[in-house]
Amino acid sequence: MFVSVQDEKLDLVKSLLPELSKIGGIEIIYNEKEKNFLVDPKNQNPYQALKVVSVIRAIGLGVPVSDAYKLLGEELIMDIIDLKQVSKDRGPLSRIKGRIIGEGGKTKKIIQEYTGVTVVISDHYVTLLGTYEQIPVARKALELLMKGREHSTVYRFLDRAEQQLLSYRASQSRGKLPIK
C-alpha cells in the first residue's frame, strides 16, 4: 500500500517510521524518487497496515501526531472532505473554510464539542477523526455549512442529533440492565 504526504510533513512522518513499524509489525519504506511511503504488512495482519496508512495520511493532512495515533485503536475512524469537490473556484474555497471555522473558531469548536469529533482544516481538506456514531453527524453539519445554511440552523441540527444519540444510548443501556 502506498501513501503520500505533503512535502512539509515528510520529515515528521520519516521520524515516526521506526515507531510506526514497530507498533504495526509492518515494514515502511520511503521512496525518495516518488516521494511516497510503501507500507508492507510482511505477511502479517493487513488490517494493521491499513491503520498505519491512515495514521500517516492523517499526519500528512495536519492532524496532530497524538490524535493520529488514536487511529491505531478500534474506536476511531477518519473521514476526509475534499473542499475542491465542493467548490471548483478558489475564491469560495476560502469562504467555505471561513464558514466552517467561524468567527474566532467558534463554529469548529461547537461542532467538535457537540460531536466529540476532531476537525482539522488544512489546504483544501477537512479531516474528521471520531467514532462511527459521530462522524456522520459532524460531516452532515459541515455539509450544511458548505451548502450555505445559516449557522443557527446547523447548531439546531447538532442539538437535535445530540438529543437523538443520548436517547438511543439510554434505550440501549436500559435493554442491557439485569432483570431483578
Automatic annotation (TrEMBL):
<feature type="domain" description="K Homology">
    <location>
        <begin position="75"/>
        <end position="147"/>
    </location>
</feature>
<keyword id="KW-0694">RNA-binding</keyword>
<dbReference type="GO" id="GO:0003723">
    <property type="term" value="F:RNA binding"/>
</dbReference>
<dbReference type="InterPro" id="IPR036612">
    <property type="entry name" value="KH_dom_type_1_sf"/>
</dbReference>
<dbReference type="Pfam" id="PF22891">
    <property type="entry name" value="KH_PNO1_2nd"/>
</dbReference>
<protein>
    <submittedName>
        <fullName>RNA-processing protein</fullName>
    </submittedName>
</protein>
<dbReference type="InterPro" id="IPR004087">
    <property type="entry name" value="KH_dom"/>
</dbReference>
<dbReference type="InterPro" id="IPR019964">
    <property type="entry name" value="KH_domain_protein_archaea"/>
</dbReference>
<dbReference type="InterPro" id="IPR055211">
    <property type="entry name" value="KH_PNO1_2nd"/>
</dbReference>
